[in-house]
Amino acid sequence: MKRFINREEELGFLERQYVSGYASMVVLYGRRRLGKTSLIHEFARGKPFLYFLATEEAEHLSIRALKDRIAEYTGDELLAQAEIGSWDILFQTLAKSITRERLVLAIDEFQYLGKVNPAFPTIFQRIWDTLLQNQNIMVILCGSLVHMMESQTLAYASPLYGRRTGQIRLRQIDFQHYGKFYDRLPYRELVERYAVTGGTPKYIELFEGNADIYQEIERHILDRQSLLFEEPVFLLQHEVSEIGSYFSILRSIAAGNHRLGKICADLGVKETSMPKYLRTLIDMHILEREVPVTEKNPERSKMGLYRIRDHFLRFWFLFVYPEKARLELSDTSFVMDKIRASFVENHAAYVYEYICQSEMWRLAEQGKVRIGKLGRWWNNQDEIDIVGLDNDSSEITFGECKFRNRPMDVDVFESLLSKKELVLWNKGNRTERFILFSISGFTDRLRDLAANRGDLLLFEKPALPEKNFRDR
Questions:
Q1: What order do you get walking across the sheet with 49-53 strand by strand?
Q2: Which of 13, 276, 351, 384 could disulfide-pair with 195, CB 3.0 to 4.6 Å?
Q3: Closest by alpha carbon to 245, among 288, 272, 274?
């Protein structure tokens, strides 16, 4: 049985577009496996609905395929038998069939129509302007190739610019909803699975078995026949033209080279050649550039670090890509030993910091902390996992996150007290608070210390959410 989890915000937006009373055109886009098609079908349940999946086949075959879908939807037997060579005639026929009950028309993988015929966005602009914009219709243009969708539907130079009534760039599912995919899985195991699959629904679905995380990795990633073995290739091959260069950059960053100079030195290239690649990866939400949270001019900061924000891709480029030669020979034992030895320290602990930052924002919503800006802080020698700033109250919150097998003790707090003196933000005129996150809980000594201080919060793992889905 399939499950539809989260996406309430996106469903609500689509529903508002549907009941708006005027013709609407929504652009829905995002990388593969995020559940765009499932979102469309969930939204369209119980509504008059026409779904068309575009392909890269010849244009006349796409016209024929859409003709068959319209004939099936309208019950027009003459149309089913007819030979149609024009998009306009098809949409004229569809427009005549629209009644007082609003139609949802979804064109999935829309970008392929423009790839086969670069003039198609102009053709569809004409169809919208002359045939559809005054009809009782909601059009959803959906696509998984981000750059193509942006250039064909959202960019100022696109013929469709100004026609859309809304857009959704679908994101990965946040960790706070992760427990809804599983039947009371322990919190630590949820974090471990999230560290590998990120918030991509298809990956989560693959890891829903009862095996431990390492068995799941071997089965679903390291096996040459598994879906995820070559997944990054499929994600990038249609988006970029020099896939080898992008893979080299991601491998270097995953290996620990986060500064521009170190990346370039590792790859043996000039720094001037790198920005276009980094910008593309940032636009694709694969990379992020991070600066210390206290930096006043982040764009000009020389402290910038590049990090892989997609957890699955970071795992793949850290553990899989460097060992592709072994894995192609089905030699998984060496790679699994490497993963078992360093998965927690070199990957899961890194992802846990992201989870803790998300929890900070939820604590702020509950009034437990005050933050207007949140991130990490570092200098050339020291680092603090979490620093939250609130200009209105001059309050600063320092935090540490530990993904260890033993409870956190007071030494972590003592270290944080010494490092916080290095952060100069509003020093001498600020209220200081502290928060500690630990996957394995806290010692009694640390609990007693927190109980006697009004400025220290120990974050216990949140209650696991109830399953919240509709069975199909």
A1: 49-53, 103-108, 137-143, 24-29, 166-169
A2: 351
A3: 274
CA separation for the pair 440, 195 (Å, rounded): 17
Q: Amino acid letter at 470?
A: R
pLDDT tens for the chain, 472 residues: list them. 345 677 999 999 999 999 998 999 999 999 889 999 999 999 999 999 999 999 999 999 999 999 999 999 999 888 889 998 899 999 999 999 888 889 999 999 999 999 999 999 999 999 999 999 999 999 999 999 888 999 999 999 999 999 999 999 999 999 988 888 877 788 999 999 999 999 999 999 899 877 789 999 999 999 999 999 999 999 998 888 899 999 999 999 999 999 999 999 999 999 999 999 999 999 888 999 999 999 999 999 999 999 999 999 999 999 999 999 999 998 999 999 999 999 999 999 999 999 999 999 999 999 999 999 999 999 999 999 999 999 999 999 999 999 999 999 999 999 999 999 999 999 999 999 999 999 999 999 999 999 999 999 999 876 554 443 333 2
Sequence-distant (6+) residues with CB within 8 A of 290 are 304, 305, 306, 307, 375, 376
Positive or negative torsion for Cα 322, 326, 329, 333: negative
Q: Is 46 left (phi over 0), alpha (psi -120 to 50) or beta?
A: left
Judge contact between 160 and 121, C-beta under 8 A: yes
* Bridge partner list, 442: 408
Structure tokens of 430? Answer: 């600020």
Reported in sequence order, the residue ranges of 92-251 that DSSP labels E, i.e. its strands, are 103-108, 137-143, 166-169
Q: What is the DSSP letter of 422?
A: G
Q: How many CB atoms lie under 10 A from the CB of residue 197?
A: 28
Closest CA to 17 of 81, 91, 106, 89: 106
Spatial distance between the Cα atoms of 207 and 219, rounded to a whole number of angstroms: 9
- The amino acid sitting at 84 is I
Please give the Cα distance from 434 to 419 (Å, whole number): 12
